[in-house]
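Appendix C reproduces, verbatim, an entry submitted by the partner laboratory led by Prof. M.T., so that reviewers can inspect both the input and the predicted structure.
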Amino acid sequence: MCSMPSSFISKLTSNTNFRIMIKLIQKWATGRNVLILLAADLLFMLGIMPYMGKKMEELAPGIPPLDITIPSYSAEYAQDTINKMSDPARAFYKSIELGADLIYPLIYGFAFALLIAFLWKKLGWGQGLLKWVILFPLLGMIFDYGENLSIVSLINQHPNPAVGTAQMAAYFSLAKWSFAFSALAAIVIGLLAWGWKARSS
C-alpha cells in the first residue's frame, strides 16, 4: 500500500469522528450488506459507467476524461483536455460529473469499506492500526468528489480554465487513485489471508 506521512496518520487516528465512522462501518459490515453494495457497484461499473464512457468517446473521440487518467496529470494537460472538447462534449461531461459520478463514489466507497471491515472481522484484524485501513475507500470517495467539483469548475471556466483549478483537480485525482489502489490492495490481501485461514482450519 502507498506510504503516507506520519503527521497525516497521527491526525487521522486521533480524530473522534473517524473512530465513530469505523465503528459504524464495522457494525454494518454484514455479508448481506456487502453483497448488496457490491452488486450495486457492479451495476455501475459494468453497465452505467461504460455507457457514459462510450457516449463520451462519441462526443470527444481520442480525448480521455480526466477522471480515468491514472494516476494524475499536469495542470496544462487538464486545461488542454477541457479546451479540446466540443461544447456538446463538455456539457455531457458536466452532466456526468453532477449526475452518475455523484452516486457512484458513494456506492463504491461504502461497498469497499464494508468489504474490508467484513474481511478484517473474519481475520481478527479489526483492532489496532489495521482498523484504519477501513477508511481508505471512504477517503478515496471524498477525494473523488473533490476531483469532480474541480472538473466542473474547469468546464465552467472554459475557454480559460484557471491553472489553480486544474492543479487542484490533479491533486484530487492523485489522492483518489492512491487511496483506491491502497483499498484494492487491502481487499486482495484480506481475501488471500481469509482463504489461507479457511484452508488451514
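The mean pLDDT is 92. Additional entries are available on request from the coordinating office.
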